[in-house]
Amino acid sequence: MANYTAADIKELREKTGAGMLDVKKALDEADGDQAKATEILRVKGLKGATKREGRSTSDGLVATHVDGGVGTIIEFNSETDFVAKSDKFIELANQVLDLAVQNGAADAESLLSAEVDGKPVSQIITEGGAALGEKVELKRVGRIEGQKVESYLHRTNKDLPPQVGVLLAFEGDNETVAHDVAVHIAAMAPQYFSRDEVPAELVEKERQIAEETARNENKPEQALPKIIEGRVNGFFKDNCLLEQGFAKEPKKSVASVLEEGGVKATGFLRFRVGA
C-alpha cells in the first residue's frame, strides 16, 4: 500500500504545480518521500521540457520593481492559472524580475541571454518550468526612467496574482495624482503617450477610413475636411493617454488633470497578461 495520504498529494501539487497523476506516480516511486518525489518530478520535467515548447502560455502574472527614478516590469507566463497562483511560480517570477533589475534589462531577449553563475537566464526559467511541470515563459520586459516612477498592479481575478501592471514616469510631488493616472492607464489601456508618438502611417490610415466612411454616409463635400479631422481627433482621444477622458472625471482630459495636480507625466508602460 502506498506510503502517503491525500494531504501529501495536495501538498506536493501545491509545491510543484504538477498534475495529480504525475504527483501520485512520483510518490509511488519515492515510497511517499516528499523530497525524493519532488526530485523525481523535477527530473521528469526537464526531460519533458522540449515536449512543452509548442504549448501556449496564456496565464501568468505581471510584476514590477521601482528604485528611485527607474522602473522595471515583466510579463511572466504559465500554461494554467493553477500554476500561475502557486508560490513556486511567483517565487520564480520574482527571481526573474530581480535579475532584470540587476542587469538593467529593457527587453526579454537581452535578459534571457544574460548569465548568472555561468548559466543563462533562459536555462534558469526552463529548469523552473520543469520543476513546475509545465511550460513557463518570460514574455516581455520593460524599463522606464524618470524623475519619479509610480507603479500600479491590478488583479483581474482576486484568486490570481496581478495580471495588469503599469509604470508611470513623472515629475512633481503630487503622488496621489500620479497614482490615479497609473490606475487610469490600467483601466483605459492607452496605446500611446501622446499624438506625437502615433506612427504617421497609422494616422493617414485613420484619415482614409474617416473620409471613406463620411462619403459612404453621403456627407456634403464641403463638410468633409471638418468631419475627417473630427474623427481623427476622436481616434487620438481614444488611444493617446494625454487626450483620454480621465476615468474618474471623464469630462476632463488626463493632460488637464495632471496639470491641475502639478504633475508632468513623461512616459508609461502597461503590460497585461496575454495582450
Automatic annotation (TrEMBL):
It is found in: Cytoplasm. Residues 80-83 are annotated as: Involved in Mg(2+) ion dislocation from EF-Tu. Its main location: cytoplasm. InterPro entries: EF-Ts_dimer_sf (IPR036402), Transl_elong_EFTs/EF1B (IPR001816), Transl_elong_EFTs/EF1B_dimer (IPR014039), Transl_elong_Ts_CS (IPR018101), UBA-like_sf (IPR009060). The keyword Cytoplasm applies. It comes from the Bacteria. Keywords: Cytoplasm, Elongation factor, Protein biosynthesis. GO terms for molecular function: translation elongation factor activity. Residues 71-274 form the Translation elongation factor EFTs/EF1B dimerisation domain. The keyword Metal-binding does not apply. PROSITE patterns: EF_TS_1 (PS01126), EF_TS_2 (PS01127). Pfam families: EF_TS. HAMAP family: EF_Ts (MF_00050). Associates with the EF-Tu.GDP complex and induces the exchange of GDP to GTP. It remains bound to the aminoacyl-tRNA.EF-Tu.GTP complex up to the GTP hydrolysis stage on the ribosome. Belongs to the EF-Ts family. This is Elongation factor Ts. It comes from Brevibacterium salitolerans.
